[in-house]
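Contributing new records

If you add data, match the layout below exactly. Sequence lines come first and carry their own label; structure lines follow with theirs. Keep one chain per record. Anything else will be rejected by the validation script.
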Amino acid sequence: MMPRERVFRALQFHEPDKVPIYIWVFNQHSVIDEILAWFGSFEDFCNFLELDMTRVFPAKSLLK
């Protein structure tokens, strides 16, 4: 099952093949630099963790 299908099945109260995994990432240089150093790209990071959804928050909005 593809991540998109898994998420929509769960939102429709149907049982997916596994529980969708969702993560928040804060778009700070130190965080993104560390992800890129370890994995090479953000997409490779998501694939390694088998994430179904991600949300990247801009760092500037957190400092207000």
